[in-house]
Design a protein that fits this description.
By secondary structure, the chain is mainly α. It has one domain. 73% of the residues lie in helices and 0% in strands. It has twelve helices and no strands. Helix 4 runs antiparallel to helix 10, helix 6 runs antiparallel to helix 7 and helix 7 packs antiparallel against helix 10. It starts with a helix and ends with a helix.
Length: 258
């Protein structure tokens, strides 16, 4: 409750930080926020051309299948990578006045969430072009997005505090992200994985929980699997707990390392 009260008390600062991040991202860009839609569309188009011709996946509505996985993974990638530097980039401010340190990580994850919401417009356009039927199951989309947000925030808090003490984290995490990309069924069906790897991916890869749910409610026009919903919220809660505990335990030492 103390954290919720602090977020409310510093809500104006959070708004300014989120607004600043969004403005800086598209500063001096002619198209501005339109790139939030054009960028995933461009990448999706290239990947569809490459993978549909090289591997010929038998996946219904493959462009939508691809852009869902790509957009969700990109949000996780960008938000956690930005969170890693959220404390170090605000070191000068933290040395001058008291501000709850997690506010900076929270604002980074939230600003990237805004960008992710804009990118959902790209998914909508691809759905229209490929004639994916619209259904009431689309009301599950905000729920899945919230699950992903909780997970990313928890992971972001952990990375933010770890990078203060160990600057090598940025290089290690880069390697992890590369492996994570290929271990998440973004551009291929999970059915092609070897049995042992399939077992690990569908049970221990958090991104699979969220991407699969989003595809179920958009492409399959069905409610997300209850087991995946439970796994998604459970994983988000676990990472919030672990990331929050590590952050709280170590935040008092930040000033000595930044």
């Amino acid at each position: 409750m103390k954290i919720f009260r602090e977020i409310y008390e510093y809500r104006d600062l959070v708004k300014e930080l989120v607004s600043k991040d969004l403005k800086l991202k598209y500063r001096r860009s002619f198209l501005g926020y339109v790139w939030s839609i054009l960028n995933p569309l461009g990448i999706m188009l290239v990947m569809v051309i490459v993978f549909s011709n090289m591997f010929r996946w038998d996946i219904k509505y493959y462009p939508v299948y691809l852009i869902i996985g790509q957009t969700m993974f990109n949000y996780m990638n960008q938000a956690t990578s930005h969170s890693m530097y959220s404390i170090l980039d605000n070191a000068s401010l933290l040395k001058k006045i008291y501000i709850p340190k997690y506010i900076f990580t929270f604002s980074k994850v939230t600003s990237d969430l805004m960008d992710f919401m804009f990118s959902m417009g790209a998914i909508l356009l691809v759905m229209i072009v490929t004639r994916v039927p619209f259904s009431l199951h689309l009301f599950w989309v905000p729920v899945v997005a919230f699950e992903l947000y909780l997970f990313v925030l928890g992971l972001g808090l952990f990375l933010a505090q770890a990078s203060v003490f160990f600057r090598d984290i940025q290089y290690i995490y880069g390697v992890i992200l590369t492996a994570w990309t290929y271990l998440t069924p973004i551009f291929y069906p999970e059915s092609m994985l070897p049995e042992w790897l399939h077992f690990l991916v569908v049970r221990f890869n958090p991104m699979f929980f969220y991407v699969k749910q989003m595809r179920q409610c958009i492409i399959e026009q069905a409610n997300p699997d209850p087991k995946l919903i439970l796994a998604g919220f459970g994983c988000g809660a676990l990472f919030i707990l672990v990331g929050g505990l590590f952050f709280k335990r170590n935040q008092g030492k930040f000033i000595l390392y930044i």
